[in-house]
Amino acid sequence: MVYYCALGAGLVVSTVFLFSRSKGASVKNLFLKMISSLFFILTAVCAVIFNPQSLIYGALLIMGGVLGLCGDTALDLKYVYKKDAHAYLVSGFLFFLVGHIFYSGAVIRYNKLDWKAVLISAAISIAIAAGSVLLEKLLKVEYKNYKLIVFLYVCFLTMTTVVSIWSAVLNHEKSMILMAVGAVLFLLSDLVLSNTYFGKGWDKPVHIFVNHLLYYAGQFLIASSILFLN
Description:
This protein is mostly helical. It is built from eight helices and no strands. It has helices at residues 2-21, 27-50, 55-80, 85-111, 115-134, 147-171, 174-198, 205-224.
């Protein structure tokens, strides 16, 4: 019951934020974003309480969520304090990067993926990250001084997606299916965000709305995967 209350409240607050943020960045929207992010962490905490056997997996996802909240805050502060935009953007990347280490670690540990599966997943992730940087002109983006941080971030972002999909295919558990879908939505959200930050014509209200819709849907699904862990 508590889990569903947290999830429901989180979805309501996130919906309010989606429409408000699509109209532009502001201090008010920064606080709405922080509250929305806090709710997917609270959803994960309630899921662990309801399903205590998921403690370690859940704790790792909660850490990833906390780092996501930090990343969310940093990325919106770049609009509030524009002279320090570079520092906030880089710190946002780093918070999310470390968060994905916790997400990937939770999936790898729970599914007991062997070193071959982990190495293959890492190789796929590195290849995709390298391609996204090397093909920036084809993708109509320009990373400039952010190429290294973009490469590193995409490696860990994609790693979460690859190991989650791999695990869902292997065991068909509802928890891993939710985790995989959440990871894919997270990746799609960052694909939109990448074009917003480094491309042209992707900063319209509809793009901002879609970016956050995919992101919060992904984060709430990832948090919810804890509830259905066997």
